[in-house]
Amino acid sequence: MAQEDTGGRYFKHVKWQKDVAGLNWKGRVAYADYILGDGIISFSSSYLICPAVKENFCVKIDIKHPTKPTSLEQLFFWNLIQEFKYLG
């Protein structure tokens, strides 16, 4: 996520990053909860999933109507991410 923000006026606030072990892959997941630019905060909800074996191949999930996800929604996405299968 940090590479997406280099050199611009806007940046994403990464609320947390965690290591993940999926069905047949390991990697890292980052969650961004807002974007800051020109002194204005815009709320967002996006997940960036990057497998450890190929760091330049990542999957980004943006929530269409960004609000703070509930615990149940966070659990849903966490379980969904862990179910991904890496076919590389």
In short:
By secondary structure, this protein is mainly β. It has one helix spanning 71-83; strands spanning 10-21, 26-37, 40-51, 59-62. The chain has one domain.
Features:
mainly beta; globular
Strand order of the largest sheet: 1-2-3-4
Could you say how many structural domains there are in total?
1
**Overall pLDDT confidence:** 79
The low-pLDDT segments are none
**Secondary-structure element order, N to C:** EEEEH
Q: What fraction strand?
A: over 45%
Number of helices: 1
Describe the structure.
There is one protein chain. The chain is mainly β and 88 residues long. The protein has one domain (2-83). It is 15% helix and 45% strand. The protein is built from one helix and four strands. The protein has one helix spanning 71-83; strands at 10-21, 26-37, 40-51, 59-62.
Q: How is the topology of this model organized?
A:
Blueprint: E1 10-21, E2 26-37, E3 40-51, E4 59-62, H1 71-83
Antiparallel strand pairs: 1-2, 2-3, 3-4
